[in-house]
Every structure is written in C-alpha cells, then in structure tokens.
Specification:
Layout (H helix, E strand, L loop, with lengths): L4 H4 L13 H11 L3 E6 L2 E7 H5 L7 H4 L1 E2 L10 H11 L3 E6 L2 E7 H8 L12 H13 L4 E8 L2 H8 L1 H18 L5 E6 L2 E6 L3 H17 L10 E8 L1 H4 L5 H22 L3 E3 L2 H6 L1
C-alpha cells in the first residue's frame, strides 16, 4: 500500500456541537492549540468551524451560524498525494477523515506536508521512488497503459573522481531539471538513487521511446559545469501491467517493471546504444 491518510491522521479529534456557542468553540481551539473543529450532530459530521470563522462571528452566536456546512472530507485510504491535491484544489488547511459515515480522524496541511517531505530529494527537488509507485497506481486505476523509463548517467564515477563531488552534485541536479522539463504533466519522475532517475508515464511504449530519445539528445546538447561532456543511457519497458497480474498486486508489478527497465538500461550501456527497450512478451509471461 502507498502511504495513506490513515498513517498520519489525528485520531483523537476535538469536536463541537452546532448548538454550542462560538465562544465555546474558540475556547476549545485556544486550549488545544488547534485551528479548526469538526462539528458533530448525533455523531454525524455537519460542518467545520475554524479560527477565521470565530474571528468573524460574535462570541454569543451559535456554531451552526458560523460554521462551513458540507465540508470537504476524505477517506482514510486516500493516498497522501491525493490528499494534497484535495487540500490545494479547495484551498483549505484541514481535512476531516470519514469512514462509514463516521468521523474517524482529521489531517492538517502542516502534518501532510511534513510527511510528504520525507519523500522528496533535497538535491534535485524531485520526489523519491514512492511517488513513482503512487503515480503508476493512479494510471492503472484509470485503466491506462503505463510505461517506465530508467535513466542512468554514463560513467558518472569519472566525474566525481576527476572534478570532485561538488561538480558531481551539480551534474545530478542539472540532470534532474532537464528530465523534469521533458516530462508530461501527469508523469511521475523521481531520483531513484545516486545518478539514476526513473519515470512512469500513462503512455504507450512508442511514446515512451520517443521521450527517451529526446532525453538522450537533451543531455548531450546541454552545457555542463567546466565544459565536461555528459551522456545518458535509458531503459524502457511498457505494457498493461494490471492485466498481466491476476493477483492484482500492482505494487509488485510496477517494481518488476522498474527492475526490467533498469536491466534494459544496463544493456544500453553495454551495447553503447544509449537506449534499449525490454522485451514486452517477456514482461507478460513474467
């Protein structure tokens, strides 16, 4: 499973009733140092009141007059990245978590961003591999064909040895930026580790091959620190992986694709062909 809302939500939720006073809601927020309260009536979520609502209302008014009705809610199974999209789309700071019609928790923007920070690579600003798995899951749930690309800089150890790790880090950072600029908006690109990058696309194998060729050309054309020359090898694999695994274990299937793409990349290096495509028939039987 991907990291989900259930992993980080606060389960001990402070709530307030709709017929309680705004002053009571303000007191609860101040006492517990929180910025908002779900509003429950007979155990059912009927609204949410925030510190902004409190400031805009008289303390003697009722919560029902100040709260936001029909708040945006999420399920505990929602992935962290999907929850982030919901927060940003609705421009809100907290999400009540509901399961079976009952409030089971709340997740705040601060907690969500702190957790997602663990999946980010500080040098390149790209995500780590967990995000690629999440994007692959989304594509598969939509019934879309996916393709995986594995990128590896050629002879990168030479750069560190001849020019130092500071220059090597700059090459990696610049490579991440070049690859990001080539990616379609929905693609999931990550720094896989060291000088390796990987991406998943909701695209056909031919479209992935075209993107791989552009990446190779872009890296070779780029201007690099100290005028050194940098080249890239790419391994590609594609196919409807969800249909190929009857057990429905999408995560294992995507990791299999990543492994096959990395092996294809190794073959491209060995053959000095810059790009290699894994055997699709082999994938389906695997």
């Amino acid at each position: 499973m991907s990291a989900s809302v259930a992993d980080i939500m606060c389960r001990e939720v402070i709530t307030v009733g709709p017929l309680e006073s705004v002053a009571r809601a303000e007191g609860l927020m101040r006492a517990h140092r929180i910025g908002g309260l779900p509003v429950l009536e007979d155990g059912r979520l009927v609204g949410i009141i925030t510190s902004r609502d409190v400031r805009a209302s008289h303390p003697n008014r009722l919560v029902t007059d100040a709260m936001t009705r029909n708040p945006v809610v999420v399920s505990p199974q929602l992935s962290l990245w999907e929850a982030k999209e919901v927060l940003e789309k609705n421009r809100i700071e907290r999400l009540p978590v509901v399961e079976g019609g009952r409030l089971v928790g709340i997740v705040t923007k601060a907690a969500l961003y702190a957790e997602l920070g663990k999946y980010w690579d500080a040098l390149t600003g790209l995500s780590k591999s967990e995000y690629l798995l999440e994007r692959a899951r989304c594509f598969l749930l939509q019934g879309r064909e996916i393709a995986v690309l594995f990128f590896d800089l050629d002879d990168f150890g030479r750069v560190n040895k001849l020019y130092g790790h500071a220059v090597g880090d700059e090459v990696i950072r610049q490579t991440g930026g070049l690859l990001q600029a080539l990616m379609p908006p929905e693609a999931g690109l990550c720094r896989y580790g060291g000088d390796e990058f990987a991406a998943v696309l909701g695209a056909t194998l031919d479209q992935a091959r075209e993107l791989g060729l552009r990446a190779v050309a872009r890296v070779e054309e780029a201007e690099w620190p100290l005028g050194i020359r940098i080249s890239l090898s790419v391994g590609i694999v594609g196919g409807r992986r969800a249909a190929a695994r009857p057990d429905g274990n999408w995560r294992f299937g995507v990791k299999e694709l990543l492994n096959l793409a990395s092996l294809a990349c190794t073959r491209a290096k060995r053959q000095k062909s810059r790009i290699a495509v894994a055997d699709t028939l082999q994938l389906v039987r695997g």
